[in-house]
Amino acid sequence: MANIFDYFDWRGDLSIESDSFNDVDALILSRLSYCPFDGVVPTEIKDKITIYNTADKFFSSEENKDKILWEGDTDLLKYAANSPRFENMQLSGYVNIIEQEKQMQFSAVIIEISKDCHYISFRGTDNTIVGWQEDFNMYYMFPLPSQLMAVEYLEKAAKNIDGSFILGGHSKGGNLAVYASAFCSEEIQNRIIAVYNHDGPGFDGKSIEQSGFKAVKDKIHTYVPQSSIFGMMFEHEEDYTIVKSSQKGFLQHDIYSWEIKRNSLIPLNRMTNTSVFFDHTISQFVSDMSVEQRKEFIEGIFSLLENTDDKTFNEIVENWRKNSGVILKSIKNMDAKTRSLILSTLLNFIKCAKNNFSDINPLRKENRKPKIKKKKHK
């Protein structure tokens, strides 16, 4: 089935002026921030480089090619650089911050669509342990350091750039885009024309009741695949659109599996039972724990991973023999309270999964309907 690479063939020769900006363009620009542009794209907002020149500079170094994290991102940058629609868009303000102490991973880039409209693309989670821990910290911490950083980044961009903004991101990047739009000043909110959340998690119930979310609610475009797991986490104030993916289960989080028709994502009417199962299981699992228990459990799990001395999940997998021994030894050396909490929590998760697996009935309407509202398709 057709995906965003086919879109480059269909629309890549048409400028934004001749064929207006659409939802597939937004998906492409959201994903572009995953490219490791360190030393390639200027960090200063006023200094700019075209996507064409960015790709030329990026691929001139073998070291840069090895830094690409996810399959498909290499081709995305090449396609965009050789497309009249994207090649002359300019990049600036690139940041890539990983702070172990704050447990924060944050990266973003500004993309000039036209002189009076800029797209701020927030990167989702990379493969660093710090990045993944920050994601799990959502279960007990609000706001996250990266969410606060997203607001600062948007405010800095707004001070240095005239005109309107579109915000977007995939996975955690989508969450950051929504958060930044909801918690920036009213003056900046008025300059935001759209916010794109591509399978990014929502927020806790108290947060979405705040007025900032209501002010931008109608500007938010949230897309989740039919078996979404990450995008179903927590609550959403906005409606969402279910899109068709050619993959199954967790692999649907990969945007390169999302199916395209002309200049739009192919919509579906409902989620699969897989998505409902995980939504119910995780919701029940979290509700059974206090905030303090969630914090202790997450910190305990990631302390085990930190004992391996590896910084990324790729490194942990590559060194699995050594790391297995390190983790088992670390569990034995844990204090009894923490070890007991981790083991009992894992057993409780299995119990919740077992209960929900028995309860989910595809014929029952209430089990097919997620907690958040579904956008009606005309």
Give an overview in words.
The protein has helices at residues 4-11, 23-32, 51-58, 62-67, 73-81, 129-136, 145-160, 172-183, 186-189, 205-208, 211-216, 273-287, 291-306, 313-318, 320-333, 336-359, 365-368; strands spanning 49-50, 90-99, 104-114, 117-122, 164-170, 192-198, 220-225, 240-243, 260-261, 264-265. The chain is α/β, with parallel strands linked by helices. The strands form 2 sheets. Strands 1-2-3-4-5-6-7-8 form an 8-stranded mixed β-sheet, with helices on both faces. The chain has a two-stranded antiparallel sheet with strand order 9-10. Helix 3 packs across helix 5 (73-81). The radius of gyration is 21 Å and the shape is globular. It starts with a helix and ends in a 10-residue tail after the last helix. 38% of the residues are buried.
Short précis:
The protein has 17 helices and ten strands. The strands form two sheets. Strands 1-2-3-4-5-6-7-8 form an eight-stranded mixed β-sheet, sandwiched between helices. The chain has a two-stranded antiparallel sheet with strand order 9-10.
The counted number of beta strands is: 10
- Distance linking N and C termini: 23 Å
Q: What's the CATH class of the largest domain, please?
A: Alpha Beta
Q: Bin the strand percentage.
A: 15-25%
Query: What is the architecture of the largest domain at the second tier of CATH?
Result: 3-Layer(aba) Sandwich
Q: How are the strands of the biggest sheet laid out side by side?
A: 1-2-3-4-5-6-7-8
For the largest beta-sheet, the strand count, sense and barrel status come to: 8 strands, mixed
Poorly predicted parts: 360-378
Number of domains: 2
**CATH-derived topology of the largest domain:** Rossmann fold
Radius of gyration: 21 Å
Shape verdict? globular
